[in-house]
Design a protein that fits this description.
This protein is α/β, with parallel strands linked by helices. It has a single domain, classed as 3-Layer(aba) Sandwich (Rossmann fold), CATH 3.40.50. The protein has 7 helices and 11 strands. Strand 2 and strand 3 form a beta hairpin. One of its GO terms (cellular component) is Golgi apparatus. GO terms for molecular function: O-acetyltransferase activity. Belongs to the PC-esterase family. TBL subfamily. Pfam families: PC-Esterase.
Length: 326
């Protein structure tokens, strides 16, 4: 609304599970559960989107202070000695993003975790992983220092085998989860890990061909089905978390969970900034609009529900409290 969105109905729809009651977000409860802990959001811009949603809701009861930390954003709640951080790592593994001034494709080393977050992992109590959208763009994949294959690279004159992106996505997640398991095995510190499932986009047309998201109401029950790509990414994420759980059960002290948002996010085409987005939101006098954003979520908006579910998962893990039921 700050950027000129004329409607506000999207603020008042609320997702309701079929078989349980989802309470409103309780910032004091979240901070109490986070006391003396470090919660790290790691991944793409949707990780940051959810991180900012959480920060906004917590700031209603306690004002955090930014902490300078190279390569990430840290906020400290002195009232509870709780730290929230956000690490930019869209592939989770080591890689380079495509850019206007450089190569027009990503490069990923699928067997090497991104040191940006790996180096700080010993100080984290809960790791929240968010990724997926950056994999469906032209990329070259490496494993053991050799080219494994690529995605849509023929247009750049590169003679590599196109292997799609499902296998690389699975390998990147597996490498990251295995690194967490091995660090726990070596260091012995308890840690919780949550993987958020894929959040569908809502472009009415291709994003790079002036696709828009102009809907102002949610989809009704049965009106929209999860697409094949979204379903496959979600399946991979759930399978890899279950595999990591089995490995972690050998020695305990580590919890892996999935925050499944795919279907509830699918139902909210009305919750994106769309055309009401500016490139420099904190620069006075800058009114230029960017391309339609049908990936990220308005704040406040549907993404706040993800953090309501996140809090219920924290109650289960750190308080031994069963999830709320009707």
């Amino acid at each position: 609304m700050t950027n000129g969105r004329p409607d506000s109905n999207y603020l008042y729809y609320r997702w309701k599970p079929n078989e349980c009651n989802l309470p409103r977000f309780e910032p004091n409860t979240f901070l109490q559960l986070s006391k003396n802990k470090h919660i790290a959001f790691i991944g793409d811009s949707l990780a940051r989107n959810q991180f900012e949603s959480l920060l906004c809701m917590l700031s209603t009861v306690s004002k955090p202070k930014p902490v300078h930390h190279k390569g990430s954003h840290w906020w400290h709640f002195a009232s509870h000695n709780a730290t929230l951080s956000d690490y930019w790592s869209p592939f989770l593994v080591q890689g380079d993003e495509r850019s206007k001034s450089g190569p027009s494709f990503n490069t990923m080393h699928l067997d090497r975790v991104n040191e940006r977050w790996l180096k700080d992992m010993d100080g984290m109590d809960l790791i929240f992983l968010s990724f997926g959208n950056w994999f469906n763009v032209p990329s070259i994949y490496y494993e053991n220092g050799l080219v494994l294959g690529c995605l849509n690279c023929s247009s750049f004159g590169l003679n590599y085998t196109d292997i799609g992106f499902y296998v690389p996505l699975r390998k990147a997640l597996r490498t990251s989860l295995n690194a967490i398991v091995e660090r726990k095995r070596a260091k012995g510190k308890e840690i919780s890990v949550i993987v958020r499932t894929f959040s569908p986009t809502h472009f009415d047309g291709d994003w790079d061909k002036a696709g828009t998201c102009s809907k102002t109401e949610p989809y009704g029950n049965g009106e929209k089905k999860v697409g094949e790509m979204e379903s496959e990414i979600r399946r991979i994420q759930i399978e890899e978390v279950e595999s990591a759980k089995a490995k972690a059960n050998e020695f305990g002290g580590i919890r892996f969970e999935v925050l499944d948002v795919t279907e509830l996010a699918l139902l909210r085409p009305d919750g994106h900034p769309g055309a009401y987005m500016k490139p420099f939101p904190f620069a006075n006098g800058v009114s230029e609009h960017v391309q339609n954003d049908c990936v990220h979520w308005c704040l406040p908006g549907p993404i706040d529900t993800w953090n309501e579910i996140f809090l219920e998962m924290m109650k289960w893990d750190w308080k031994g409290q069963p999830r709320s039921e009707e």
